Amino acid sequence: MNQISTSNDILSKDNLCSPPSYNFKQMLDDLREDIDRYVFMGNDEKSWLFMLLAHQGLWALVEYRLHRWVDLRVNLPIIRQILRLFCFLWHKFIQIITGIDLPHKADIGKGLYINHFGGITLNPEVKIGEFCNLSPDITIGFGGRGDKQGCPTLGNRVFIGPGARIFGAITIGSDVAIGANAVVTKDLPEQAVAVGIPAKVINYKGAQDFVHYRKK
Ligand SMILES: CC(C)(COP(=O)(O)OP(=O)(O)OC[C@H]1O[C@@H](n2cnc3c(N)ncnc32)[C@H](O)[C@@H]1OP(=O)(O)O)[C@@H](O)C(=O)NCCC(=O)NCCS
């Protein structure tokens, strides 16, 4: 097996994150893409309303998007305090009933797909690109030492298998697949498939076979 490459020049140059000027329309557009991803994953057999009511991953995403918008854009003093309190309580409720913790400070691109219940923990400094897949029991968080201390940045269309742990100020390239129970503490280049503890690249077949979304 090859060691993980840490060369930054082969990492994703895609636009990973939502812009700081996160206005209401952008928030709704992201949410529409989130819901559409679930409809697409259900082979377009069920309505968006059914998906919204039936999938706990979407409950967490709705709370995350609205909470983020309130935090970044609502500036009227009293309204802001009231909405922030409401969002704080809503976040706790979602965390308890879904086991999914998407902090509003984390930067998550549109079309995220969380297919099962629970165990998803993200640090608020994490960045995740568009159309990624999160399986259950995943930690993406703070770690590392020196200039590698911090939180991961994930590219677009990244697949993360169940039980994976990803930490440190590392960059995961676009179309990367991380296998079940892998522990990733080093950069991964685009298209890498990494498994094990510590995670090692086993091939460069990418995540296309696992990450499906409506191409527009
Ligand atoms: C990591 C993964 C994407 C690799 O897929 P792939 O590129 O097709 O690679 P393969 O499945 O052919 O496996 C290649 C090798 O890695 C090993 N391997 C695969 N996944 C592994 C894992 N999570 N941990 C350790 N080794 C693993 C295989 O046993 C195989 O070893 P071998 O060459 O000695 O026989 C795939 O194994 C995987 O985890 N898919 C996701 C499935 C999943 O998580 N489903 C539940 C979602 S909730």
Structural class: alpha/beta
Poorly predicted parts? 1-15
Main sheet: strand order: 3-6-9-12-14-15
Q: At the fourth CATH level, what is the homologous superfamily of the largest domain? A: Hexapeptide repeat proteins
In CATH, the topology of the largest domain is named: UDP N-Acetylglucosamine Acyltransferase, domain 1
Distance between the termini: 36 Å
H and E order: HHHHEEEEEEEEEEEEEEE
**β-strand number:** 15
- CATH class category label of the largest domain: Mainly Beta
What is the CATH architecture term of the largest domain? 3 Solenoid
Number of domains: 2
Q: Count the helices. How many?
A: 4
**Distinct small molecules bound, one entry per kind:** coenzyme A
| Percent in helix | 25-40%
Specify the biggest β-sheet: 6 strands, mixed
Question: Mean pLDDT, as a whole number?
Answer: 91
What fraction strand? Answer: 15-25%
Write a brief structural summary.
30% of the residues lie in helices and 17% in strands. By secondary structure, the chain is of the alpha/beta class.
